[in-house]
Amino acid sequence: MVWRRPSIGHADPLGGDFPLVTSEGHNILDVIFTSPIASLAEVAESLEKVNGVVEHGVVSKFLCKAIVASESGLSIVDNIPTNAVGGV
What we know:
By secondary structure, the chain is an alpha+beta fold. The protein has one helix at residues 40-48; strands at residues 2-3, 30-31, 65-70, 73-78. The protein has two domains: 1-32, no CATH class; 38-88, no CATH class. The longest helix is centred in the middle third of the chain and has 9 residues, at 40-48. It is elongated. The two termini are 29 Å apart. One of its GO terms (biological process) is pentose-phosphate shunt, non-oxidative branch.
């Protein structure tokens, strides 16, 4: 399912009266995946092959780890997707 997020009013997947457009004239689409994603890398690769797609926000090439400091000390949060490129 694909949605455009309007800055005012309501826009349907085709943009309606208020499609969100960049200053360069590119349409911005929000994509909602309604089923589990088997491979983020494959989604990113598929999007990159679509004619007219300038950029996407699928992060699949970076492993994620955060060190969180709080009053009770440090904690390490691993968020390493197994379907990332080079995943573990």
